[in-house]
Structure formats: structure tokens, C-alpha cells
From TrEMBL:
Gene it is expressed from: alr
Cofactor: pyridoxal 5'-phosphate
The protein's role, per its UniProt record: Catalyzes the interconversion of L-alanine and D-alanine. May also act on other amino acids.
Reactions catalysed: L-alanine = D-alanine
Pfam families membership: Ala_racemase_C (PF00842), Ala_racemase_N (PF01168)
The protein's name in its UniProt record: Alanine racemase
Source organism per UniProt: Flaviflagellibacter deserti
InterPro entries: Ala_racemase (IPR000821), Ala_racemase/Decarboxylase_C (IPR009006), Ala_racemase_C (IPR011079), Ala_racemase_N (IPR001608), Ala_racemase_pyridoxalP-BS (IPR020622), PLP-binding_barrel (IPR029066)
NCBIfam families per UniProt: alr (TIGR00492)
Tagged with keyword Isomerase: yes
Active-site residues from the entry: K45, Y265
């Protein structure tokens, strides 16, 4: 039986995931400073973006976080079991019939449609509870949330004391938060300000990671950073956040490849010189995406080998990755050594860019085959 927190034993797997909880805490504190007088919450959905929800929320609570956002009720249950006094919001809507589950967990639903509001109101009435919940307003994302007309109706009912539950948060979500000058961003900030004013006394929340880092007009009463907690930098440029994850993989073999020979599936990359190739025990089954491989036409991702950057050579396969170590000293890398695929200067955002995706997908896709090591 594999322990979900530590993973398989080191010698029974080919890769290690080192998770720095001290860096996670430091990132939350930096984001809290950006939030100013607003509360800084923590988004811990998707198993805390892949690092493990239980150790993550314990560390964040120790750092000072008191409000947590998840996507699904089972995630809320895990947070509640670790943190009896935390405020927990469930972003993924109110599934029909799930109200008793959320009440039992003492989690707040994020209500984004009139049917959800009706169902939660009925449950609160029948059970004689305050039924604290967030109201989600769509300000331009066109994903989840009440329309403006629906929101105005709910606001009138709230003002008249005719809501059967207590709104504990009014919120919306930024579509282009990384671009403060985007017309939609400006529209969302202005629109949300108007909506929030219709719910006097109810805390308002708009800022995600990008909004929190930018501060100013993005910040209302509560910020909800996600990817930035884990070291991702949605704004680009110099990253003030600390990397949380280190992904190392074991070298299985170092082999010689003649000039003109190809490496890996599909023969996509040809050795342009006599080469030495380190084959490491990781692949797309571990979340290192196939698209991060290389070919004769494009450079793929890099790895850190013996302290030096070395390029991948050929495709990433399910369990194996080949790294060109020709430029290293002959004895610099040997069977059993570890190379770094994320960390030591290689960020999740860089790997995402090399795989034509984003750091979010890289981080949340890291698999279950790692030996997991928690530090900090």
C-alpha cells in the first residue's frame, strides 16, 4: 500500500518530489503583504495544486491563513479534518442534494446560479441554520456566476431581509487578471465594485494570484491567491516568490550515441555529433509532459545535471527521458545519480512554456509515482 503523503519508497521508484513547506509559508506571507489590510486566503484545490492538501493547509495555517478555497466537497472534508476552525469555501458549485454534506463539513458553498441559491435557501430554512455562503457574480468570465440582473434581484432580497441564508462573501473571478490594462480587466474591476456596493456589510473578493500581486484596485476585502502560493508567477518577469517543488529523477543509464543516430520514439531528434545521453527514470506518466520533448526542429525542456543545464534529446516517453550530457566531463554523471527537471532555476512556468502550456498544468499534473519528501 502506497502512502499518499510519502509515495513509494525511494528505491521502488525512479523520481523524487521534494516539497518545501517553508517556501509555501513564505509565499503566503509575501502575498499577505501585497493584500495590505485585506485578508489573504489560500486556494488549495486540486490537492493543493499537487503538493498535498493536508500538509499544505497545516503549513498555511501556521503561517497565518484562516480562509481556504477548494473546488469540491471531498477537498473541503480533508481541510476540515486538519483545521477545525478554518473558514472553507467550495468553489465548484452546489451539486443537487449536496447541501447536507457541506453543512456536516461546516463548509460554505459558493452559489453561482439561482437554482443553487433556491436549494441552499430551502435547506437553511428547513434546518434552521444561518447557512453562510458566498455569492458568485459573473463580471465577464462567462463561466460560473449570477448575471447582473440576477444579482440585482438577490441584492434586493438581501436588503429587504428576505434571504433565508447569510451571505458571508460576494465574489467574482478575473478572466485576464495578469493584464491590468486589458479592457475586460478594467470592466470587471468597475463592475464588481458596483455589485459589491449592493451588499453592504458583506466582504468582497475579486483578486486571484495576479490581482493580489498587483494590489491596488484589485484588492477588496479578501484575496484568493492560488498558483502564486506554490511558486508560479502569473505576471512574468522577476519572480518574488520561492519555488516550492523540486522534481528529481534517477539516471538509469549513460550511453553513447553516434553522430547521425536518432534518440527516442519517432526518431524526432538526430545527434549532430558523437554524444553521451543520460536516460532518466521519469516521463509523462509522472506529469512531465510529452510536449516538453525536443526534435530536430525545436528545443525542448532542460534538466540540471551535475549543476549544469543540459537539453533533453528526443521525445519524452511514458517512463523515460533522455538528456544530452555531452558537454559535461565524462565522469560528471553516472548510473544512480539524480538530475533535476523542476527546480534549481528551472521553474514550473519555464517547463510549461517549453511544453506549450502553463505552469498550473505542470504542477497539478505531477503524478503519484514520486517518493515525496517534505521539508521546511
Amino acid at each position: 500500500m502506497i502512502d499518499p503523503f510519502t509515495g513509494p519508497p525511494d528505491l521502488e521508484t525512479g523520481s523524487r518530489l521534494t516539497i518545501d513547506l517553508g517556501a509555501l509559508q513564505s509565499n503566503w506571507k509575501h502575498l499577505a503583504s501585497c493584500a495590505g489590510e485585506a485578508e489573504c486566503a489560500a486556494v488549495v484545490k486540486a490537492d493543493a495544486y499537487g503538493i498535498g492538501i493536508r500538509p499544505a493547509v497545516r503549513a498555511l495555517w501556521q503561517a497565518g491563513a484562516r480562509t481556504f478555497f477548494v473546488a469540491l466537497p471531498f477537498e473541503a472534508r480533508a481541510v476540515r479534518e486538519e483545521l477545525p476552525d478554518a473558514a472553507i469555501y467550495v468553489l465548484g458549485g452546489l451539486a443537487p442534494g449536496s447541501s447536507p454534506i457541506l453543512a456536516e463539513i461546516k463548509a460554505h458553498p459558493v452559489l453561482g446560479s439561482l437554482p443553487e441559491i433556491d436549494e441552499w435557501e430551502l435547506f437553511a430554512k428547513e434546518n434552521g441554520i444561518a447557512g453562510e455562503a458566498a455569492i458568485h457574480v459573473d463580471t465577464g468570465m462567462n463561466r460560473l456566476g449570477l448575471s447582473f440582473a440576477e444579482t440585482q434581484d438577490v441584492a434586493k432580497r438581501y436588503a429587504g431581509g428576505n434571504l433565508a441564508f447569510r451571505p458571508s462573501l460576494i465574489m467574482s473571478h478575473l478572466a485576464c487578471g495578469e493584464d491590468a490594462d486589458h479592457p475586460l480587466t478594467e470592466h470587471q474591476i468597475e463592475s464588481f465594485g458596483n455589485v459589491a456596493a449592493d451588499f453592504p456589510g458583506v466582504p468582497a473578493s475579486l483578486a486571484n494570484s495576479a490581482g493580489t500581486l498587483q494590489g491596488g484596485a484589485f484588492v477588496f476585502d479578501l484575496c484568493r491567491p492560488g498558483i502564486a502560493l506554490y511558486g508560479g508567477h502569473p505576471l512574468g518577469g522577476d519572480n518574488p516568490l520561492k519555488p516550492v517543488v523540486l522534481f528529481d529523477a534517477r539516471v538509469i543509464q549513460v550511453r553513447e550515441v553516434d553522430e547521425g543516430e536518432t534518440v527516442g520514439y519517432g526518431a524526432t531528434e538526430t545527434a549532430r555529433r558523437p554524444s553521451r545521453v543520460a536516460v532518466v527514470s521519469a516521463g509523462y506518466a509522472d506529469g512531465f509532459m510529452r510536449a516538453a520533448g525536443s526534435s530536430d526542429d525545436r528545443r525542448g525542456a532542460d534538466a540540471i545535471v551535475a549543476g549544469k543545464r543540459c537539453p533533453l534529446i528526443g521525445r519524452v516517453s511514458m517512463d523515460l527521458i533522455a538528456v544530452d550530457v555531452t558537454d559535461l566531463a565524462p565522469d560528471a554523471v553516472r548510473r544512480g545519480d539524480f538530475v533535476t527537471l523542476i527546480g534549481d532555476g528551472i521553474t514550473i512556468d519555464e517547463v510549461g512554456a517549453r511544453a506549450n502550456t502553463i505552469g498550473y498544468e505542470i504542477l497539478t499534473g505531477l503524478g503519484s509515482r514520486f517518493a515525496r519528501i517534505y521539508i521546511g
